Amino acid sequence: MIIGVPREIKNNEYRVGLLPVHCEALTEAGHTVLVEHRAGEGSGVLDQDYRAAGARIVNSPRVLFRRADLIVKVKEPQPSEILLLHSGQIVFTYFHFAADKKLFSSTLRSGIIAIAYETIQSPDGSLPLLTPMSEIAGRMAVHEGAKYLEEPMKGRGLLLAGVPGVAPAKVTILGGGIVGANAAKMAAGLGADVSILDINLNRLRYLDDVMPKNVKTLMSNAHNIREQVRDADLLIGAVLRPGARAPMLVSRKLVKQMKRGAVIVDVAIDQGGCIETSRPTTHEKPTYLVNGVVHYCVTNMPGAVARTSTLALTNATFPYAMEIAQRGFARAVRENSALALGVNIARGRVVYPDLAKQYRLPLTSLKEVL
Ligand SMILES: NC(=O)c1ccc[n+]([C@@H]2O[C@H](COP(=O)([O-])OP(=O)(O)OC[C@H]3O[C@@H](n4cnc5c(N)ncnc54)[C@H](O)[C@@H]3O)[C@@H](O)[C@H]2O)c1
User: Which of 45, 96, 180, 370 could crosslink 176 through cysteines, CB 3.0-4.6 Å?
Assistant: First the structure.
């Protein structure tokens, strides 16, 4: 198989789909790997490192996209990349179709097989390719929140940790999954006063067991959300319904009742966000104000810590990329049920139930497109 690794072109995205170590394994297995010129630069990897691992460096994305049977990348194809896709090509990356109708429609028209990192799901229900980035985004949410709470950043002028004699800041986290737990761990480590809300009682039990005393767990319901949001200095949105749009938990009216200079970090923005006033932002211009509340809604947070993120991401994605290369699409998804759940679109048809439902299109079973 010919595997293509393009240079990411999304705003301030410095990660890359595969590292030299993976190119070495693929070429040793008899595959050809094409890597776009400077694709690894943002993650500290040079063209010569890829060359030494057996990959071929390609100068033009046009040539790379035309020749590759399998594209392994990081972020959803950008409009200029969509034009380069060809029917039957496999694209293995984060897509987040539920949050972007335009991307969904243009990908459907392109005829590719879209395997989305974020919907690959293990039999135990976990999302193994979302997890490493969620760990990073959860931890980063607290760094970013702490930074934007500073006065010059338009925040309330609060130190998350407080100091002896001065109370710490209040951090409210909606969703106690991977993002939520990692954010809670960081915020608690800094000494903040943390609340996590979730609808899954078993998850709350687990968090209550493992978290330190400055983290309290609460059932996510309208009353608790209202109380905690009003009281929060830093509000972190971390909910997920796999493959579907994030549930809207905080209304514009409730944001109005928040403290001026409070900070919202809506990590769930890549699935549409869970706060009514959230809209996607970029690392170039990460924040905006609504009623004096700072909103940070960057859709690719881990891109800013690319060296850590590329390693963490490819540790998780590479085994699947290798399976697709070795077995081909049909056999790989037949033999790996987790990978099969990653297939959202195949050859112009929608095969992921939540997407068909959201965009009111017929659902085709995966078997039919194999
Ligand atoms: N912006 C970024 O750069 C970035 C990076 C990584 C992940 N994410 C996003 O962060 C979000 C969370 O990801 P995750 O890996 O933590 O997911 P997860 O599945 O591990 O956790 C989600 C949690 O939300 C809970 N939940 C669902 N509905 C809820 C509700 N109404 N109230 C409270 N809790 C509710 C679930 O019970 C679950 O515990 C996702 O949207 C993911 O795509 C964004």
Answer: 180
Return the ligand 1 atom nearest residue 174 CA: 33
Could you identify the atom of ligand 1 that is nearest to the CA of residue 96? Answer: 43
Residues 238, 189: Cα–Cα separation, whole Å: 19
The yes-or-no answer on residue 270 being catalytic is yes
Which is it for the CA torsion 156, 157, 159, 164, positive or negative?
negative
**3-state DSSP call for residue 25?**
helix
- Residues 292 and 349: their CA atoms lie apart, in Å, by 44
Query: Measured from the CA of 268, which atom of ligand 1 is nearest?
Result: 41
Q: What's the mean pLDDT in 22-41? A: 98
Q: What average pLDDT does the segment 261-266 reach?
A: 98
- Residue pair 312/129 in contact (Cβ under 8 Å)? The answer is no
Per-residue pLDDT of 337-357, as tens digits, reads 999 999 999 999 999 999 999
The DSSP line for 297-329 is -BTTGGGGGHHHHHHHHHHHHHHHHHHHHHHHH
Residue type, 117: Y
Residue 242 in this model has a pLDDT that exceeds 80: no
Domains delineated in the chain: 2-127+306-369 (3.40.50.720), 131-299 (3.40.50.720)
Residue range 116-141, pLDDT digits in tens: 999 999 999 999 999 999 999 999 99
- Residue 96 catalytic? yes
For a mutational test of ligand 1's pocket, the pick from 130, 266, 305, i.e. the residue with the most ligand atoms closer than 8 A to its C-beta, is 130
What spacing in Å lies between the alpha carbon of 268 and ligand 1's midpoint?
A: 6
pLDDT, position 145 = 98
Task: Share the mean pLDDT of the chain.
Answer: 97
DSSP state of 64: H
